[in-house]
Design a protein that fits this description.
Layout (H helix, E strand, L loop, with lengths): L38 H11 L1 H23 L31 H37 L1 H16 L2 H12 L3 H12 L1 H14 L3 H8 L4 H12 L1 H24 L11 H7 L8 H29 L6
Length: about 325
């Protein structure tokens, strides 16, 4: 067979001479170079677009740093009493004033941030761990195993949380460990249900079936593929657990069954300020304002993560 003549038109309607060869300097005019980003890099890029969430993140970082370093470098201790200088107003020596025992309120607020934030983040981490393990196994294994474990979840959820709290405080006393246990004993249930639903919807997808066909273990399929593809809603849910845990700890401390004195949390400070609220309202303002601003910032961060991790909600 003889070679085709390039000058011979392939189609009479489009002869070869009807097209011009594009010059070399114009071949890449429409080429758009874009640097590839991983999932979390893209999520951070989208998160930074939400100015309110970004400001809230900066605020939380500043609060955490102040909670760490202010009690260390301040010349006042959170439990040091000065009975000669009680119930004083804000000044250069005491930024937030002093309480009825002469203790520096600013240092106590920063020390209280240690306890409140530690309880909040620790509770969220524990709930995240239990929720992923429990919900992931139920959703992936299914069958009778799923039925039994989810009935246990229903039983835990049916008992009022306040009953858990009272029993735990009576047994273990008022300390950080018992407060953390009281918060975590039932708050992971919602996350476990969410993870279970996400895993059940994802395990029949093509990528999960392909991983099973090539011989991947069940552990790898569940935690490397299924949970990883559900990580967006899980992170958002976990972020919103932090303000809930902080508020629960503050409530328990406020009613007198949380953190015991002389340790200081925002809830115990609000409880101490009740007796002088009429004459010294600022002493109630500082811990309440700290709780409100922190919870508000964490909720804004949760909303920002929800938009950043969900492609359907990106502007």
């Amino acid at each position: 067979m003889s070679e085709m003549n390039l000058n011979t038109p392939v189609n009479e309607e489009f002869p070869a001479d009807a097209f011009d060869i594009l010059p070399e300097d114009e071949k890449n005019n429409e080429f758009i170079a874009m640097k590839s980003r991983s999932f979390f890099q893209d999520a951070w890029f989208q998160f930074k677009k939400n100015k309110l969430a970004l400001v809230s993140l900066i605020f939380i970082i500043i609060v955490v740093l102040m909670a760490i370093f202010v009690p260390i470098f301040s010349k006042y201790s959170y439990d040091a009493q000065d009975l000669a200088n009680t119930n004083s107003g804000p000044s250069l020596a005491h930024f937030f004033g002093t309480d009825k025992f002469g203790r520096d309120i600013f240092v106590r607020v920063m020390y209280g941030a240690r306890i409140s934030l530690s309880v909040g983040f620790a509770a969220a981490a524990i709930n995240l761990f239990i929720g992923i393990i429990w919900g992931g196994m139920c959703g992936y294994i299914g069958g009778r195993f799923d039925l039994i474990l989810m009935r246990i979840v229903d039983i835990i959820y049916s008992v009022p949380t306040l009953l858990y709290v009272i029993l735990i405080m009576l047994i273990f006393g008022s300390n950080i460990g018992s407060v953390l246990l009281a918060i975590c004993i039932s708050s992971w249930v919602g996350l476990a249900r969410q993870v279970r639903a996400q895993v059940m919807s994802q395990k029949e997808q093509e990528y999960a079936l392909a991983a099973r066909v090539i011989g991947a273990s069940n552990f790898r399929i569940l935690f490397k593929h299924l949970v990883k593809n559900c990580i967006g809603p899980i992170i958002v849910n976990t972020t919103l657990m932090v303000p809930s845990a902080i508020f629960t700890e503050a409530f328990l401390s406020f009613v007198g069954i949380g953190i015991s004195i002389p340790q200081s949390s925002w809830g115990t400070m609000a409880n101490d300020a009740r007796s002088v609220m009429n004459s010294q309202p600022l002493q109630m303002l500082w811990p309440v304002l700290s709780i409100c601003l922190t919870m508000l910032a964490l909720n804004f961060i949760g909303d920002g993560l929800n938009q950043a991790l969900d492609p359907k909600k990106r502007g």
